Protein: Cytochrome oxidase assembly protein
Amino acid sequence: MEHDRIKLRYRKLVFFTWFLTLDLIMFGAFVRLTDSGLGCPDWPGCYASVTPIGAMHHIDAASQAMPFGPVTLSKAWIEMIHRYVGATLGLLIIAIVVMAWRHRARLGRSPLLATVTLVAVCVQGAFGAWTVTHKLMPAVVTSHLVLGLLLLSLMTWLAAREQPHLALSAAAARWRPWMRGGLLLLLIQVTLGGWVSTNYAALACMDFPTCHGAWVPEMDFQGGFSIIRGLGELPSGEMISQSALTAIHWVHRNFAFVVFAYLGVLGFRLRTEPGIRTPATLLLGLLLAQLLTGLTTIFFQWPLLIAVLHNGGAAGLTLASVVILVRLASAGQRPVQPA
Structure:
């Protein structure tokens, strides 16, 4: 009985932490899309205070000096709530690691994956701090986004191991390299999407399927994809050009068709396997949702809710892909049973 209680407690902790990780990624998109990333321009506090309440004097002074600037009371709260949730997530992952090591024999799991997840959340926290101290430098913010999805992938891996599912035939193992390739393509597309978002290039092309009325518009790839530079700048310090923003948007838009076609065909093929039919169906549904939210972002000029949902769709595609990979790893083995 004690053995079963420990396994159940661990499973609940893992699933709750996984859910909070997904929520944090969605809220992180909200922080970025509401321009709240510098709502508190220091770290870890807000003007050295634990909450914006203790920083009211500084926030009022900053908002009066720049009424439409990055610091306002609402933005400060949005940024600090994001940090509070991130700190809570870190504590929960520490608890998972402690349980994984302490009860590794009873859980029947190696604590290595939980430990790697703890390292990942620490690195993610460091990039969160650098996002503020480097004044929303696109390379840092994009890395923060990608590492957030890596953390979600690790948490999904932890959770998927605890989820019972139907047995997969040994023949299903042939899909592993294809799914790995799909996850790699998705990672590239997510990185490109992060680069679009952090450079505010979502509206660089206002028409579809053409861009500025052309299939291949005038673009500055060197300026758009120069990595080491400040927000809204070129490496030379000049303001980033429209042609550079167009290059960023155009590459993300067109690579999306590659990802859509690859994962779409793969998803339909994977639905023939009962053990992965549900996540494969979710993958297909999210692909369609990403297409619709991406187009809506262009046609309706980047509405906040749709933009947040588009970011959430990327997270959903990531977790569906990881679940499929975890289940494919058990192809030919006995089905996972609940504890």
